[in-house]
Amino acid sequence: MPKKNQTLGEFIIENQSEFQYSSGELSRLINSIRLAAKVVNHEVNKAGLVDILGTAGETNIQGEDQQKLDVYANEVFIKTLTNREIVCGIASEEEDDFITIKGRNEKNDNKYIVLIDPLDGSSNIDVNVSVGTIFSIYRRVTASGTPVTMEDFLQPGNLQVAAGYIVYGTSTMIVYSTGHGVNGFTLNPAIGTYYLSHPNMRFPETGNIYSVNEGNYIHFPQGVKNYIKYCQQEEGDRPYTSRYIGSLVSDFHRNMIKGGIYIYPNTSKDPEGKLRLLYECNPIAYIAEQAGAKASNGFMRILDIKPTQLHQRVPFFCGSKLMVEKAEEFMKNAE
Ligand code: AHM
Ligand code: MG
């Protein structure tokens, strides 16, 4: 049983035996993400000082080149994950191709694949709005001792062994699951320690928040248009309230606590949708299901989609179970 106020370090050690293939490696992998998240958090928190320290792409007062934060976060996560002998391959939203990590003595015998969106919603940084990191972990499917191949990365989301996100918000939190429910840890920045603040998180079965970029309404499929009208109708607990931050992690995190649905549909402009299946939708869908919620492309379960490309996009409907089912009903009826 997770104990409130336990540190993330203690929690990882105590719950290690729950992992399906328990050898301590997955624990060490989560630990390295915890470390990278602290480093990125420190840098994200300084973003408001750009006028003093120099903006991205410029040279600062000490003559150092300032990096864009998403590029910086990408480097920190890749470096930290590469340094431990656990990961054999990384794919990142910031990289065109996957990265092969040969590991100790170039033996290619590390077990895990990590897919990561190092800094999601980064256009929100300049305006002091929350951003996040999203990660997804799989075991490799190709033989140990050989370099990873695309096959290792194109696994359906239902084969994830762990997934999570970090939200750099009013406080910084890491929320993750290894298939035994979802737990959230809050960073105490004064001492650099994460404490278990949200044990066993559960998504409310229904809610009254809908989160969608309604500015794109005209381009939405008819089913989504009809569902939005339904959300706005006066009946029972409706109209629902509309909340859209434009940072997936923050919108999802709020909805998981309060109850709600997040939708990023396909549009006439983006027929595949905007969000990426591997770096954004699969890990968030995994957390959602672990917390009792649902994630769909409007017609089928996100986690059952067999990916065909690293940077594949997908329409995304995610949140309180009854709300996602209702939205799916509207999608089906509009076909
Ligand atoms: P990004 O990966 O380029 O940051 O884009 C993903 C973000 C999500 O966090 C957010 O939910 C969505 O894009 C917002 O998009 P829009 O501004 O089109 O509503
Ligand atoms: Mg992103």
Q: In a nutshell, what does this entry contain?
A:
Mg(2+) 2 binds at residues 117, 120, 280. This protein has nine helices and 13 strands.
Question: How does this structure look, described?
Answer:
The protein has helices at residues 8-14, 25-45, 50-53, 69-83, 150-153, 222-232, 248-258, 277-290, 321-333; strands at 87-92, 99-100, 112-120, 131-139, 162-168, 172-177, 183-188, 193-198, 209-211, 241-242, 260-264, 294-296, 316-319. The chain is an alpha+beta fold and 335 residues long. The chain folds into 2 domains: 8-198, Fructose-1,6-Bisphosphatase, subunit A, domain 1 (Fructose-1,6-Bisphosphatase, Chain A, domain 1), CATH 3.30.540.10; 209-333, D-Maltodextrin-Binding Protein, domain 2, CATH 3.40.190.80. The strands form 2 sheets. The chain has an 8-stranded mixed sheet, sandwiched between helices. A hairpin with a 3-residue loop joins strand 5 and strand 6 (172-177). The structure holds 2,5-anhydro-1,6-di-O-phosphono-D-mannitol and magnesium ion (MG). Magnesium ion binds next to strand 3.
